[in-house]
Amino acid sequence: MSQELVLAEVEQALGVRPLAVGPLSGGCVGEVYRADLPGGEKVVVKRDQRPSPNLDLEGYMLRYLSAHSRLPVPAVLHDDPRLLIITFLAGSGSVNAAAEQDAAELLAELHQVTAPAYGLERDTLIGSLPQPNPWTANWLDFFREQRLLYMAGEARRAGQLPAHFLPRIEQLAVRLGDWLPADGRPALIHGDIWGGNVLAAAGRITGFVDPAIYYAAPEIELAFITLFNTFGATFFDRYGEMRPLDATFWRERRHLYNLYPLLVHVRLFGGGYVTSVDRTLRQFGC
Predict the structure, then answer these.
(1) Are 124 and 57 contacting, i.e. CB atoms less than 8 angstroms apart?
(2) For the domain that residue 40 is a member of, what is the CATH number?
(3) Do 175 and 50 share a domain, yes or no?
(4) 160 and 266 share a domain?
(5) 192 is an active site residue
(6) Dist CA 218 CA 47 (whole Å)
(7) How many domains would you assign to the chain?
(8) Which residue in 48, 79, 102, 192 is the catalytic one?
(9) Please, what's the b/e burial string for 46-68 (b: 16 or more CB within 10 A of its CB; e: otherwise)?
(10) Residue 18: C-alpha distances to residues 3, 21, 34 (Å)
């Protein structure tokens, strides 16, 4: 992509022409650039040139987190389906013990933000994939229909999940009440906290990026953190001081909740993630 075109698009959106622009890594949708504005401000520019772009959804999610929590997220300077411009947050993916404690405090506070039901006022995205969020009173119904069965169906339609997995997932979905609570207090979650979406510096979290928000049982967020070892024992010790976790979370519930991100990865990448889904289904007798 011509850098001149990026310069022109930023100028049209913000009314100021960047001094320089260069590519950034990490975008799962389209192209990502860093632009240096006059006066020293740096911004991140995302471009989506697919037939059905939806960068405005990422803008919406960042605005929602900013309006409803103190989670450190980039400010949205411009968003439309094809172009998103957000503030550049300094930091790296290297998280030390102090930053893990900070992350625990930030997420425990985020999980205090509640709503009358599970879901959200609109559908969102996880990575590049649609994430349906119809308001649902019962957590088991929401997790069963809008997460497990929905994403299993998407993975099957994409040819990434073998057909014989669907009845096994359906069998597990019927039995979710054996392990998971049906109700509770819906909590606002970031929804996609892996190492690449966490920025830290000097013992603090400087940013959580690329959210996949909705109101959920907060343990689904914590389970995902364990899936890719985003944070370790220091995080969970501090989080547990504020919002205790019992042994059955570690033994059972986290594995059930992680079926959703595993199915997301099956839909996107197939391969070894199918084996991980199989292992979880076997763990629960399906």
Answers:
(1) yes
(2) 3.30.200.20
(3) no
(4) yes
(5) yes
(6) 32
(7) 2
(8) 192
(9) bbbeeeebbbbbbbbbbebbeee
(10) 11, 7, 10
Spell out the alpha helix ranges (H) of 15-93.
55-68
Does this model's pTM top 0.70? My answer is yes
Q: Which two tokens stand for residue 276?
A: 């991980």
Say yes or no: 133 and 107 in one domain. yes
Residues 78 and 117 placed together within one structural domain of the fold:
no
Residue 92 lies in a domain: no
Tens digit of pLDDT at every position of the chain (286 positions):
578 888 889 899 999 999 999 888 765 667 899 999 998 999 999 998 888 899 999 999 999 999 999 999 999 999 999 999 999 998 876 799 999 999 999 999 999 999 999 999 999 999 999 999 999 999 999 999 999 999 999 999 999 999 999 999 999 999 999 999 888 899 999 999 999 999 999 999 999 999 999 999 999 999 999 999 999 999 999 999 999 999 999 999 999 999 999 999 999 998 899 999 999 999 999 9
CATH assignment of the domain containing 246: 3.90.1200.10
In a domain, 189, yes or no: yes
